[in-house]
């Protein structure tokens, strides 16, 4: 009897313990991540240079920021847009080295915030191009604290070509050049001559100036005659304030300065001359784009203007007839026309 009583007590304890374990399993819950949705998009169609604002909201606030990545998935190239925050400060682009995969922009939804917004700006460029339909995707990244609704937020944006009467002429000498120097060292020492190879941008060695008729661009690389550059570099750049009048506008390059920065302490000298290449671009904003390459018009042994040389060279002419542009070479031959 006593033995059966003890067994009954042990069986009761076992049932209570088992029941307790089952109740714990039934009451266990996992944490739920906030879900972020797009609430508005200020425009679905813009012209190059214009900006839209994308607004987001979360179904619940979170104690830490939520990281998302915006990337272009179709319709254009990464150079076709850039992203800024609600205050207009540009957001740095991501890269593979950041651990975020392909090119994009990191969007940070602040901690404890219920809403957040960011801007997408269509890049303003001089190219004559068709309407683009950009498709963006916003997904969770980095800390993964928040989830986009339906797994990804899609943003569609039509971008139309910007056309204006503005002229943009560019002398681009941001070209890679390679050359050798010889460090002849000090005579009457046991140090041998040493050949040193150099690879650098021509921007680091040369100073070209650009003239288009009476307009000019100085002290930049590339040099650019345009209203935008004139506003950014007053005193060093001038440009038309409106449409160019009909006529021929000579385009002239001037090798104003050139300096290899040779080391006097090692008696360094240039080992053979090399070409100073550049490209001329002539643009009628959004309607006409033409270019001419000049691979060997100048060489490292040319005396620049600031050293008493004649660094000027006629590259060609910009011809304007009834508002339409043509690019002519130095011989007066038409290279391209609207």
Tell me what the structure shows.
With 338 residues, the chain is mainly beta. The protein has two domains: 35-160, Sandwich (Immunoglobulin-like); 167-337, no CATH class. Helices cover 9% and strands 45% of the residues. The strands form five sheets. A six-stranded mixed sheet has the order 2-11-9-4-7-6, with no helix packed on it. A six-stranded antiparallel sheet has the order 16-15-18-22-23-24, with no helix packed on it. Strand 15 (206-212) and strand 16 form a beta hairpin.
**What summary fits the major beta sheet?**
6 strands, mixed
Termini gap: 113 Å
The gross shape turns out to be flat
Mean pLDDT: 90
Organism: Lacinutrix venerupis
Protein name: Calx-beta domain-containing protein
Keywords: Signal
Signal peptide: 1-22
Keyphrases for this structure?
338 residues, mainly beta, Immunoglobulin-like, 2 domains, six-stranded mixed β-sheet, disordered N terminus
Question: What would you say about this model in short?
Answer:
The chain is built from 2 helices and 24 strands. The chain is mainly beta. The strands form 5 sheets. Strands 2-11-9-4-7-6 form a 6-stranded mixed sheet, with no helix packed on it.
Spell out the blueprint of helices and strands.
Elements: H1 2-27, E1 35-41, E2 45-47, E3 51-58, E4 66-74, E5 81-85, E6 93-94, E7 104-109, E8 115-122, E9 132-140, E10 147-148, E11 153-160, E12 167-172, E13 176-183, E14 194-201, E15 206-212, E16 215-217, E17 223-225, H2 227-232, E18 247-258, E19 268-270, E20 278-284, E21 288-294, E22 312-321, E23 324-329, E24 334-337
Parallel strand pairs: 1-10, 2-11
Antiparallel strand pairs: 1-3, 3-8, 4-7, 4-9, 5-8, 6-7, 9-11, 12-17, 12-20, 13-14, 13-19, 15-16, 15-18, 18-22, 20-21, 22-23, 23-24
């Amino acid at each position: 009897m006593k033995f059966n009583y003890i067994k009954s007590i042990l069986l009761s304890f076992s049932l209570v313990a088992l029941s307790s374990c089952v109740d714990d399993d039934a009451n266990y819950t996992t944490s739920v991540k906030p879900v972020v949705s797009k609430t508005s998009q200020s425009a679905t169609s813009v012209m190059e240079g214009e900006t839209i604002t994308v607004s987001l909201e979360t179904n619940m606030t979170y104690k830490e920021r939520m990281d998302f990545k915006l990337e272009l998935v179709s319709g254009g190239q990464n150079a076709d847009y850039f992203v800024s925050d609600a205050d207009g400060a540009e957001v740095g682009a991501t890269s593979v080295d950041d651990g975020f995969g392909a090119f994009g922009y990191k969007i940070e939804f602040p901690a404890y915030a219920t809403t957040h917004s960011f801007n997408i700006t269509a890049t303003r460029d001089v190219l004559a191009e068709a309407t683009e339909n950009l498709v963006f995707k916003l997904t969770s990244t980095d800390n993964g604290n928040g989830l986009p609704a339906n797994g990804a937020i899609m943003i569609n944006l039509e971008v139309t070509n910007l056309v204006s009467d503005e002229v943009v002429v560019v002398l681009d000498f941001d070209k890679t050049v390679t050359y050798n120097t010889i460090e002849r060292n000090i005579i009457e020492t046991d140090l041998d001559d040493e050949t040193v190879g150099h690879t650098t941008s021509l921007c680091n060695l040369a100073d070209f100036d650009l003239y288009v008729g009476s307009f000019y661009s100085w002290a930049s690389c590339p040099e650019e005659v345009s209203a935008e550059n004139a506003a950014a570099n007053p005193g060093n750049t001038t440009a038309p304030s409106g449409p160019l009048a009909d006529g021929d506008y000579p385009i002239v390059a001037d090798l104003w300065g050139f300096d290899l920065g040779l080391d006097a302490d090692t008696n360094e000298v240039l080992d053979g001359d090399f070409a100073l290449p550049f490209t001329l671009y002539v643009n009628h904003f959004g309607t006409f784009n033409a270019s001419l390459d000049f691979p060997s018009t100048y060489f490292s042994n040319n005396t620049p203007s600031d050293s008493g040389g004649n660094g000027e060279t006629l590259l060609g002419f910009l011809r304007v007839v009834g508002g339409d542009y043509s690019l002519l070479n130095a011989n007066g031959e038409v290279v391209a026309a609207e």
